[in-house]
Amino acid sequence: MAPYASEDSQSQDQGPGQSARRRKAARYAVPVAVLGVAAATIGLVPALADSGDPELPKITAQELIEKIAASDTQQLSGTVKIHTDLGLPSFGGAAAGGLLGGGAGGGEDGGSSADPKEKLPELASGTHTLRIAADGETKQKLSILDDASEYSLIHNGDDVWAYDSKSDQAYHAKDTGAGDHGKKERSGEVPATPKELADEVLKASGDTTSITVDGTAQIAGRDAYRLQIKPKQSGSTVGAITVSVDAKTGTPLKFSLTPASGGAAVIDAGFTSVDFGKPAASTFDFKPSKGTKVTEADDLAKQGGADKAAPKGAEELDGLEGMDGLNVIGEGWTTIAELKLPKEAGDLASGSAAGSADLPPDAQKFLSSLGDQVKGDFGSGTVYSTRLVNVLITEDGKAYAGAVTKDALVKAADAG
């Protein structure tokens, strides 16, 4: 793979022909995308512990939010450590995240082990080392480093490549919307200035959220402010979200989500090294070697490969088809989604799905380990729990889900 070299450690300015709207899109998108790819969808291992609390000028929460919004970081490269602990079990060495999110194709039935939806769900559990690089909104690279292999996802212009060195397979797709988000009209949707954005964020937080500056830290050798976001409402499983922001550039360097129940962070991701120079153009080059199996996304779609890799019955859940609408209960951190499940899904309330022939043995163990029988005015059901998100499925086929406690779900079901 191409090296993560720096071509110009001082160059961060864009060409004079670039539109202000395009700069704004990249300004907001690049730092979020870098950590968000490990976020969305992650406490860090001891190696990521803060190495000191630097003395920095005092700053308010509003000023720090403005600083993030005003950040003009469009080029960077570095190494990220990510740790996720949702409290999901592992069976026979198989992570629960893989059971639910990916790994089904593995190159079989027309699929590809290099397909991002096969590989990226691995980030839902355990500790991973990533190398990232970004050069504006059309060039990004993310590599997941294992002991003896590497997986890379490269976006370069209108091409998206993914390569799995372990299986020597590549996946190629066309990004027909490359750069479009910088061209679309967004008037009335995005605040015009960083101050307006900060005002909107603080206004939206209202009575549900506390936003403060919780001191300083040193991340990847750089001085940073810690922006802490905490629910004011009771009943949420979220304890606090902390974002460490580079004091000089305003770029988020570390993200941590701790649960209300205490203990290690559920999600934690942060740079261990970072360079704000322009990555070398060769960083984003990729050409499959002779003998590499290449899967084209368009061909896979025509062959129905995605459908073949899906578990039996999954087509009924696609796009929430077969579900009787969605009802949102509550607001802020205690928001709960209520929906009516397809008839076949009602068995989950009694745990009978664990004996279904449609589920592999590991998935049966997985569901059984998460299930907790509950009763209330609504009847009976089963709560499937993680350290962050809980789901209640009732005997009459309704589902209640949110980053809330089990008691909050039961209360919502009773009210319903």
Characterization of the model:
This protein has 416 residues and is of the alpha+beta class. The chain has a domain of 105 residues. The protein has nine helices and 22 strands. Helix 2 packs across helix 5. The longest helix has 17 residues. The termini are far apart.
Residue share in helices?
10-25%
Structural class: alpha+beta
Q: Approximately what portion of the residues adopt beta-strand conformation?
A: 25-35%
Give the total of beta strands: 22
Mean pLDDT: 77
- The parts where pLDDT drops under 50 for at least 5 residues are 1-50, 91-101, 181-188, 305-323, 353-357
Please list the strands of the largest sheet in the order they lie side by side. 10-11-12-13-14-2-5-6-7-8-9-16
Describe the secondary structure blueprint for this structure.
Elements: E1 6-8, H1 20-36, H2 61-70, E2 75-84, E3 90-91, E4 94-95, H3 96-101, H4 116-119, E5 126-135, E6 139-145, E7 150-156, E8 159-164, E9 169-174, H5 194-205, E10 209-219, E11 222-231, E12 238-246, E13 252-259, E14 267-275, E15 278-279, E16 293-296, H6 297-303, H7 305-309, E17 326-329, E18 336-340, H8 361-370, E19 371-376, E20 379-385, E21 390-394, E22 398-402, H9 406-415
Task: Please give a quick description of this structure.
This protein has 416 residues and is an alpha+beta fold.
Defining key terms:
single chain; alpha+beta; twelve-stranded mixed beta sheet; 22 strands; globular; disordered N terminus
